[in-house]
Amino acid sequence: MEKIVIIGCGAAGMTAAIYAARANLEPLLLSGPLPGGLLTQTSDVENFPGFPDAVNGYELMFKFQQQAERFGTRIESDIVTRCELQPGGPHKLYLESGKEIECKALIIATGASPRWLGLPSEQKFLNRGVSACATCDGAFYRNVPVAVAGGGDSAMEEANFLTHFASEVHLIHRRDEFRASKIMVERAQNNPKIIFHLNAVVNDIYGENDVDGVEIKDVRSGELTRIPCKGFFAALGHVPSTALFKDQLELDEKGYLKLRDKSSMTSMEGVFAAGDCADPTYRQAIHAAGMGCRAAIDAERWLNS
Ligand code: NDP
Question: What is the pLDDT of residue 281?
């Protein structure tokens, strides 16, 4: 029986592992489908304290991992496919490899996954011209036009990043106001390679075998316009990765894990949560790390009590 298992290897899971390992709880961390978590899909992280000149997302997560392992965290790259949780534990986890694990305390740090528009053409061209990660796929689009949908910080960041490769970047946003921070919007507006299409939604992504362009619809007039491009990037935010727990733990209306007041414990005793899977508000790496710290301390106190 494991004392504590952490599901997820992003900023929240790794920080929980550092704290749990330093408390001699010998944590087992199951890294899940995306080693390093969402931060590995971003380019430069400019707002993580301690890195005045920005830090590469992948590099930052590698440092988190080294720190967690230094204190004895065991990391397994396996995926939880099913779980049986019970108040006070033990909790049973069924892994993709066929392995089964029992633990006294569980920390869920499963993060979030990209939101998609939901168009059939988006599925058709997924990974063949359609992507949710400019950092991963941007370099495939050298000297050709691309499109990005969204009006948050991710959309601004991805659009700017894509201008390193693409001939021009069409930024499509459904409103004429931005959710993104002012500095990010200004940076995109000052970039001559970014063309804004506001009050517009993507109606279709067209092409034969590859993407040839996106069709956008003006939300006020209904007018349709075709924008030729070879790549489409969805930067529409994320949805919490909590489907695994939906029948056993309380979720809010958007699918985020509910936490008890002033604690990181979920609706079930002995099950804790941290990071984007339980954070509908801030969704920042530094906040996820703080939540990971809190979950490990709460779990340690609960195990000792
Ligand atoms: P957000 O939720 O902030 O933004 C999502 C954007 O997508 C919104 O503009 C939203 O439009 C739009 N959108 C959502 N669904 C649809 C849809 N179906 N059709 C059309 N448009 C849609 O997500 P982000 O990923 O941008 O940011 C998440 C968090 O990460 C934020 O807290 C952000 O600050 C942070 N972040 C920070 C960065 C940095 O500082 N370097 C970089 C990237 C992210 P609408 O506005 O109309 O709702």
Answer: 86
Residues within 6 Å of ligand 1 by CB: 46-47, 115, 117, 149-155, 157, 174-175, 179, 201, 235-237, 283-284
CA of 178 to the centre of ligand 1 (A): 9
How far apart are the C-alpha atoms of 36 and 59, rounded to whole Å?
Answer: 10
Give residue-wise pLDDT tens across range 89-126: 999 999 999 999 999 999 999 999 889 999 999 999 99
Confirm whether 2-113+238-304 and 116-234 share one CATH topology.
Answer: yes
| Alpha-carbon span 184 to 197, nearest angstrom | 17
116-234 is classed CATH 3.20.20.450: no
Tell me the C-alpha distance between 225 and 217, whole Å. Answer: 6
Span from the CA of 184 to the centroid of ligand 1 (angstroms): 12
What is the pLDDT confidence band of residue 34, given thresholds at 50, 70 and 90? confident
How many angstroms separate the alpha carbon of residue 273 from the centre of ligand 1? 23
Strands of 53-137, DSSP E: 55-56, 74-76, 80-84, 91-95, 100-108, 112-114, 130-131
Residue whose CB lies within 8 A of the most ligand 1 atoms, among 38, 48, 148, 153, for a mutation test:
153
More confident residue, 216 or 32: 216
Q: What is the pLDDT of residues 61-71, one digit of tens each?
A: 999 999 999 99
Domains of the chain: which residue ranges? Answer: 2-113+238-304, 116-234
Q: Judge if pTM exceeds 0.85.
A: no
The active-site residue out of 9, 78, 103, 137 is: 137
Active site residue 133: yes
103 part of the active site: no
Query: pLDDT tens digit string along 266-279?
Result: 999 999 999 999 99
Q: Please list the residues that pair with 19 across neighbouring strands.
A: none
CA-closest candidate to residue 212, choices 198, 227, 230: 230
Which residue's alpha carbon is nearest to atom 37 within ligand 1?
A: 153
- Name the fold adopted by 2-113+238-304: FAD/NAD(P)-binding domain (3.50.50)
163 Cα–ligand 1 center, Å: 19
